Amino acid sequence: MTLSLPRVTLGGNVFGWTADEAQSFAVLDAAHAAGLTSIDTADVYAAWVNGGAGGQSEEIIGRWLAARPGVRDDVVIATKAGKLPALKGIRPEVLREALAGSLGRLGVDMIDLFYLHDDDGGDLRDTLTQLDAFVREGKVRALGLSNFSADRIDEAFAVVADAGLTAPEVLQPEYSLVSRDFEGELAPAAERHGLAVAPYYALASGFLTGKYRPGADVDSVRRGSAGAYLDDVAAIATLERLDEVAQIHDVPVASVALAWLAAQPTVVSPIASARTVEQVGPLATALTLELTTAELASLSAASAAIGLAV
User: Fold this and answer.
1) 185, 199, 243, 246 - which has most CB atoms within 10 Å?
2) Cα(168)–Cα(95) distance, rounded to whole angstroms?
3) Which pTM does this prediction carry?
4) For the domain 9-204+253-290, what is the CATH superfamily, name and number?
5) Residue 15: helix, strand or coil by DSSP?
6) Percent of the chain, pLDDT > 70?
7) CA distances for 79 relative to 24, 55, 211, 254, 270, angstroms
8) 37: Cβ–Cβ under 8 A, 6 or more apart, which residues?
């Protein structure tokens, strides 16, 4: 892989949403100081609170980079295109406009990792030819795919091989200790094509931080999605096992969940966001936390029944 990613990537979806600019700058400073030197964003963040316009996260990251001379050389900036309401899809003309917008908002000459954020089912040859041009023009360093099926990944690599195009290097799927569908068809596809995996929802919308528990009233915009796991007895059992492992290592629950994910085959850099400086700590701890083989196996076994019975 042409990129060097840290063991955990900082998610930027909260910037301009649940974290204002001052909070975002503080989080970015703390993350950089702790060694979280990869930042993931997208042009669509956070369109859901800005009338569909999006771009707030990239703009904040761009202003942070401009205010921190020299930091740009230390960090990997990843962004995604294809989901912004005004620029939806992966057609070449859409991608050209999307990339230009992202470069401008981030204030950089090159995107380190540029993802197709979704698959609209269109002609992959045209799309991948355009992505190859971005790389050859020096506007993009490496390519990634997000939310692609195993069949479409295979199709993409067949096109790349046939046309001699730049191959994607990173796959960004949903994957966590309590959401393991990735292990079915996508994990073998990633291994087949040598894709490094950077999973999103690595902490299951906050459930794997341990703050969402039966009877707990958490004031959070993610309360609904994270709280859905509370009705699953296997998810609660998984949380209890996380508690036990965290106590053994004297680390936060979130650190254990990220360390489990980082230890899975093909996974290189799970993505987790932080709204406050305090939330950066567990992510930083996961950079070096090593779980034993027995701990990894026990966590996998505890979560295997999630969704099968309630």
Assistant:
1) 199
2) 15
3) 0.94
4) NADP-dependent oxidoreductase domain (3.20.20.100)
5) strand
6) 94
7) 17, 11, 29, 24, 15
8) 6, 74, 75, 76
